[in-house]
């Protein structure tokens, strides 16, 4: 008797299975696919539907925010214009204030039952992570895409409008932070910057002292890398209040070093080593995250090779110097 090839056996088994499936399929009634079978309708998940629902869900929020943007600009003496030739770049301080104001209003709109402290903590986190800066820039770019530009700001009008709503006494006491970092003449800039980064961690977790109080904190940061294994960076952080003007920055806006550094350089001239001094200032309403952002901006500039710099607008901003004395 001839043996049956395994291939023939497999082919026969497959044919039998197919025949059984076909027979059962013919005998069972076919079910129609209904709209409620759990599968979404292609029309429902289409791009047109998604965009329409997105616009409906967000239009009321952004109409509200655009109204708040107009008011916030007015308080700084600024206005929107339809003339692109009149477009003016806002100062960092104005942008920061716009971001803080609008994000606070957004929190109140979206979650009206949350506490004021919870809203402030959320906004502070958004400023700290850089979200606020990107968000306000995107909002202003969106306005420009529709032909609305930020026009020239009248500093005098802005100051008048601001003080009419918020007298100078309500801005005081000013919050001030003074940071001094010191190393030997051979200390690498990298090590000094790592000391500043350690300081930024302290500032992030340290609440600002109560009104009329100050705090001083001394510390050291030892770098243990192979380049300078015995190098140690010492630092001092001072948190303090300024109860009367003009504070660190008497000018309304500027990038020149303030007079504070005249006395600072005189004191450092007789001390051998590498020195960095940074000052940060805000009003009584300035969030800790905003002041920390000033420090981060200064660190980026020092890392890029700058030895001095400043960026301030009225009562808010920062300045720094980096020196070596042998």
How are the secondary structure elements laid out?
Layout: H1 6-27, H2 47-75, E1 80-81, H3 92-110, H4 116-128, H5 131-145, E2 149-150, H6 155-165, E3 174-183, H7 189-205, E4 215-222, E5 232-242, E6 253-254, H8 260-268, E7 273-282, H9 288-303, E8 308-313, E9 316-325
Antiparallel strand pairs: 1-2, 3-5, 3-7, 4-5, 6-8, 7-9, 8-9
Helix pairs in contact: 2-3, 3-4, 3-5, 4-9, 7-9
Strand order of the largest sheet: 4-5-3-7-9-8-6
Query: Number of helical segments?
Result: 9
Largest sheet: 7 strands, antiparallel
Number of strands: 9
Helix content: 40-55%
Mean pLDDT: 80
Q: How many whole angstroms does the radius of gyration measure?
A: 32 Å
Residue ranges: pLDDT <50 for 5 or more in a row? Answer: 1-11, 155-167
Give helix and strand order, one letter per element, not per position: HHEHHHEHEHEEEHEHEE
Structural class: alpha+beta
Apparent shape: elongated
Distance between the termini: 108 Å
Strand content: 15-25%
């Amino acid at each position: 008797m001839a043996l049956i090839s395994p291939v023939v056996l497999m082919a026969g088994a497959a044919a039998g299975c197919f025949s059984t499936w076909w027979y059962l399929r013919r005998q069972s009634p076919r079910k129609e696919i209904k709209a409620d079978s759990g599968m979404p309708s292609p029309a429902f998940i289409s791009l047109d539907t998604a965009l329409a629902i997105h616009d409906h869900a967000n239009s009321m929020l952004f109409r509200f925010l655009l109204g708040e943007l107009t008011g916030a600009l007015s308080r700084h003496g600024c206005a929107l214009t339809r003339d692109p030739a009149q477009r003016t770049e806002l100062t960092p301080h104005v942008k920061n204030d716009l971001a803080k104001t609008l994000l606070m209003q957004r929190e109140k709109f979206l979650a009206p039952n949350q506490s004021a402290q919870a809203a402030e903590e959320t906004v502070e986190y958004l400023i700290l992570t850089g979200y606020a800066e990107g968000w306000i820039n995107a909002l202003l770019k969106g306005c420009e895409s529709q032909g609305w530009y930020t026009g020239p700001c009248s500093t005098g009008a802005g100051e008048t409008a601001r003080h009419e709503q918020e007298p100078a006494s309500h801005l005081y006491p000013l919050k001030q932070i003074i940071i001094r970092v010191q190393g030997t003449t051979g200390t690498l800039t990298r090590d000094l910057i790592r000391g500043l980064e350690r300081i930024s961690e302290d500032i992030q977790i340290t609440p600002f002292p109560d009104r009329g109080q100050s705090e001083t904190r001394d510390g050291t940061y030892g770098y243990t890398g192979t380049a300078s294994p015995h190098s140690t960076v010492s630092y001092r952080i001072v948190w303090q209040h300024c109860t009367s003007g003009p504070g660190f920055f008497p000018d309304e806006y500027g990038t020149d070093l303030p007079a504070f550094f005249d006395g600072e350089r005189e004191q450092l001239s007789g001390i051998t080593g590498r020195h960095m001094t940074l000052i940060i200032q805000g009003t009584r309403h300035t969030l800790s995250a905003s002041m920390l952002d000033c420090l981060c901006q200064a660190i980026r500039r020092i890392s890029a090779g700058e030895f001095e710099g400043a960026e301030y607008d009225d009562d808010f901003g920062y300045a720094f110097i980096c020196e070596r004395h042998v």
